[in-house]
Amino acid sequence: MNKIIEVEHLVKRFHQIVAVNDISFEVEEGEIFGFLGPNGAGKTTTINILCTLMKPTSGRVILAGFDVVRQQNQVRRSIGLVFQDPSLDIRLTALQNLNFHAFVYNIPRAVRRKRIEDVLRMVELWDRRKDAVRNYSGGMRRRLEIARGLLHYPKVLFLDEPTLGLDPQTRHHIWDYILDLRQRESITIFLTTHYMDEAAVADRIAIIDYGKIIALDTPDALKKRVGGDIVTLKTENDEAAIAEIRHHYSIDAQRDSEGLFFEVQNAEEFIPLLINNFNTEIHSISLRRPTLDDVFLKLTGHQIREEAGGDVAMRRQWAMRQARGQPGRFR
Amino acid sequence: MSNLRAMYIIWYRDLLNFWRNKGRLFASFIMPFLFLVIFGTGLSSSMFLLGQGAQGEGFNYIQFLFPGIVGMIVLFTAIMWGISIVWDREFGFLKEVLVAPISRTSVAIGKTLGGATIATIQGMVMLIFVPFVGVSLSLGQVLLLIGLMFIFACSVTAMGIFIASRIRTMETFQVVMQLLLFPMFFLSPALFPVQNLPSWLGALVRINPVSYGVDSFRQSILEPTVAMSDFRMSLFNHTMSIPEDILLVALFGIVMVFLAVRSFSTQE
Fold first, then answer.
1. Do B101 and A73 make contact, defined as CB atoms within 8 angstroms?
2. Total number of domains in chain B
3. CATH number at residue A108
4. Shared domain check, A237 and A204
5. What is the pLDDT of residues A62-121, one digit of tens each?
């Protein structure tokens, strides 16, 4: 397999904040590579560097054989992008947006119409091609952006939070396109997300937190790191329950908003045993297989979706947005 | 070659957006109309003819004002075109442009040409007031005027784009532009001749590049019809000709294009 992206000791600093802290990884040609982490972890900064929108503080990135700092135009021709924030001209129609793109990427006139029709049919927007994008829903706009990202047959398609802010049905729909796409074209997809279930479609996942890669493996291998099944308990007295579990089974249970939880092998057999001689009153008990959420929690000690509560993460994210010069998305 | 293509498509998109928003074209008539018809008529009715010579010829205030209003429309449209950059940034489209395999130089120049074309079109539409004003223009004069307007518009658009590339929000852009636009307009010979100004005001008018643009418009529109030698701009006691005027405007424009290109190249 060829390496399509090689990242070596990449660092990006915004004044005091180290957004990307010495990361190295490689992406194989044709794979779906997931970048998973909470908001403000450095995902978008990394993508911005990979797609030449930002210069690294130090380190080296080779994409499709080209250096992202010194050979910007060759890199730009090799990639397609679907940004986290919308990037369409909403005053123009879908056709006009795609024509602009085709022109800028120098797609020969002879094939331009055909390719535009192909991608628009693929995302089922052909019938709406003459409508101004202003009148499109969020999901339609995102689909149009995916179509646009593919128009010039890029080697790597970057999807930065491609389903952010979309309803579950539309998210599902967009994922169908992406997976279908991968079947048909041998395109490499570089994906960032903070949705665990989305990351699970990737061939390999890099988990990033506070600017560092803390794990990089296949989803299955990552899940195996959790070690066992997850048992969640709701009890009358959490303190007493934790002490009791530690005393009897030498297991350290943890607490979160849901109640207590801990890992154990063969939970089906363990639960009856636990209930039979437990002194604290149990309200409910549940069992599930490990997910990437658990992997993340295990590796970082915090949950991926607690970004709103995490004061440090919030401030970090705010400072990075300021440094990148982006106005808030929701204004 | 690829730079030319890029400039073309950036320019084309600006025109497309302008054309899709035709209402703006007509709305932009209100201000010059008020200036010419109301302000101009009001003032000229209590003012003597300007440049009244021994033969009793000369021209009235509306005729004097008209080229200034053409200058105003071109100036306002051109400088405000920078807002399209701020708009693109706020709505994200700028990213699509910045990540495309085209040079930033061609983006900045394409944007400048787009804004300048639109400002020139707006200026040309102003020529429908010509019969009302009472001057006559030959085809040659019109072509000369279009050329002058385009060079002037390029310079001013480049300035607007340079400033816009450093600004993040529409509100800030509006405020900064108002602060710049009105001094540039009032400190020019658009509304009054420079000859009898107190020296401090005369000096301010002379360091304003807009003055020379307006002066070139005035000369090209009025000179053949009426003798207006007393009302031309002068610099260091030298009376400016049209080529000299537009050369100064172009020099200013080259500096502004350079600044805009440089500012665009470092955009992240």
1. yes
2. 1
3. 3.40.50.300
4. no
5. 998 899 888 888 899 889 888 878 889 888 899 999 999 998 888 888 889 988 998 888
Tell me whether residue A294 is in a domain: no
**Interface predicted TM-score of the whole assembly (ipTM), two decimals:** 0.81
CA distance B248 to B251: 5
What are B31's two structure tokens?
Answer: 């201000």
Would the CB atoms of B102 and A48 count as touching at under 8 Å? no
Helices and strands per DSSP (H, E), number in chain B: 14, 2
Q: Does B262 touch chain A (CB under 8 A)?
A: no
- With respect to residue A316, please indicate whether it lies within any of the assigned structural domains: no
- Which residue in A has a C-alpha nearest to residue B104's C-alpha? A73
pTM for this model (two decimals): 0.78
Q: Which domain holds residue A234?
A: 228-289
What residue spans of chain A are helical by DSSP H? 43-50, 72-78, 94-104, 109-122, 138-150, 168-184, 196-199, 219-224, 238-249, 267-276, 292-300, 311-324
**Among A48, A85, A104, beta carbon nearest to B6:** A104
Domain identity same for A34 and A96: yes
B168 contact A CB<8A: yes
Nearest CA to CA, how far is A5 from chain B (Å)?
18
A277 and A130 in one domain?
no
Tell whether A82 and A117 lie within a shared domain: yes
